[in-house]
Write a structure and sequence with these properties.
- With 148 residues, the chain is mostly helical.
- 70% of the residues lie in helices and 0% in strands.
- It contains seven helices and no strands.
- It is globular and about 55 Å long.
Length: 148
């Protein structure tokens, strides 16, 4: 089971997808976990999510997936698990928050909220990671080569 989760080829495109997704997601996770980049930090983020009806267990999973999952993507450790977490977060974000504002981001500040175009890009990168694994220069790849 673990082998099928971490198995990956020497794939440069998988490397690019996982690092790009990890680098983009990490600041969002650090906002929620540590309050960096204008975020609220763990306690206030948990309070915000739970006050909106999100169960505390799921709120904690979002913070973990966006912070530690992003770090995992960057180094290529448990890539498919991290990517699955991002897929879940993006789908929930689209259908519960962003779909009502349409496709486009709020570039002009005239919309009442942000559209979901960013989420589609994150989903696409996460799906590449789910299908291809960590690819070249990943911890997953190093573990597979070591087992062989």
């Amino acid at each position: 089971m673990l082998r099928s989760l971490i198995d990956t080829e020497r794939d440069f495109s998988a490397f690019v997808a996982r690092v790009a997704l990890g680098v983009v997601m990490l600041p969002h996770g650090l906002q929620k976990l540590l309050g960096w980049f204008g975020g609220y930090g763990f306690v206030d983020t948990m309070q915000s999510f739970t006050s909106q009806g999100v169960p505390s267990f799921l709120a904690a999973l979002v913070i973990i997936a966006e912070s530690f999952g992003a770090l995992g993507l960057i180094v290529g450790l448990l890539t498919r698990i991290a990517a699955f977490g991002i897929v879940c977060i993006m789908l929930v974000a689209i259908f519960t928050v962003h779909a009502q504002f349409g496709f486009f981001m709020n570039w002009t500040g005239k919309q009442p909220g942000e559209g979901f175009e960013y989420h589609i890009l994150a989903l696409a990168l996460a799906l590449v990671c789910l299908m291809r694994g960590g690819g070249l220069w990943s911890v997953d790849r190093a573990l597979i080569e070591r087992r062989r």
